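A quick aside before the break. I want you to see a complete sequence-to-structure record at least once, exactly as it would be stored in a machine-readable document. Don't worry about memorizing anything.
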Amino acid sequence: MNRQSYRSIKHPSVLLPRLSLVMAAAGGVWTLGLWGPVGMARAQAQAQAQAQATVPTTASVSASAAVAVATPSAAQVQNLPALLQAARGHDAAYLAARAQFDSARFRAEQSRALKRPTVTADATVGRTTNATPFSTTVTGSTTDATTTNFNASQPLFNRASDMAIAQAEKTLEVAKADLEAAEQDLIIRVSQAYFDALASRDALTTVQASKAAITEQLASARRNFEVGTATITDAREAQARFDLVTAQELAANNDLRNRQLVLEQVVGRLQVQPAPLKLPLVLPALMPDTADAWVTRGLERHPAARKAQLGLEIAQLEVSRARAGHLPTVSLTGRYTQQRVDGTATVRNAATNSTFPVGQVGTSTNSVVGVTLSVPLYTGHSVDNRVSETLKLEERAQHDRDAARRAVELATRQAFMGLQSLAAQVKALEAAEASSQLALESTQLGYRVGVRVNLDVLNAQSLLFQTKRDLAKARYDSILGSLRLRQAAGTLGEGDVQALSPLLGG
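That is the input. The structure line, written in tokens, reads:
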């Protein structure tokens, strides 16, 4: 039976004079049966009972949708800058990078001590006892001595120390680049979680709206079947779409919960309610508007490119430090020694062969100031081998620098083209949304006048709601793409997040 003849059947009473084989619903299982006056009445009653048992009313669906959407509103609405500020004090990866940068500053200060003077002091307290009874002069003595030494040294020339200090300064710049990279990564992770939660919320809202529309279409199909203007097929098609959208609603609700948990974990807060976008959405113009300009920025400012360049400079300094092993070192040294002696000695009188004690008390001092020159003469070729090693490490650092710059250029161009594509998708989906809305209205009108069937309406509704969902997702991806482009160019900062505040509600 073709569509033309299928639509011409308005009511089973048309077929009362004869019997025909049809598909009847019995207990949810389709079977072949005879469609006569009694069979038709039984099939209609079974279909009506099953539809009433499995399909909720429009009011109940709307109420459940309203509850599901309104439940998160109990939490306080927060925009992206506020959540980013909260994440700064909670995210473990960012806090670890901050601690690493702070430690690098102290490491740099340690290296500067190589050019500063050093002063040490030590003291020795001891007692010396000597017994020589056979001596003709001194038969014994006991001496208590306290010795104090002060040593000072000031480097005058040490090429290796100079290179070590320069390397420490470069290492501090590397730690700063790592901190900037961690901060940009935090911005992207918070923004990703933020817009993923909004996209999941919009997806759930769209599915619930689609469910409500399908429910109304199912109710209409049931009514038309009851009055004899439609067949049982329309109700079964609507029932199948209703069951499918119910499963989609459950999946969308679970996805929203997962996205919400991710956002709460990143920012360290519970019951976070991200502020939605303000519609109509107008994104600011992209400046500069060429990929080459963004690539130039990336090569100059991206933390990975800067870190690779600093790594090359550190390797070059290491070569100079290794070569300094052939050079002499000069330092100014000084030493001051004070010794206090307090003791007694037993002296023998040779004439009388008698002994008598003699006291020994006094303080002595010694001062030395000079310049120390140290020249390496032979080190077993260790310095030469060290120089050869550092030259190879410098070559490796050059290749790492080139690879990092190429990666930055590629990522920047991909991000730029991706953002352009997303902007075009948003415009195309906005046009598709308007067209799908008009198509749905036309299909509904055709269904009411009898030139379209129920399945056409269901398809038009599905297309419209799918377009709405894709449009919302494309808008979020477009905003996130602009942030990713700035990250690829190394310019992403808190100011870029603050610039999104006018686009967000709250």
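Two observations worth writing down. Residues 1-74 have pLDDT under 50 and may be disordered. DSSP finds twelve helices and eight strands in the chain. We'll return to this after the break.
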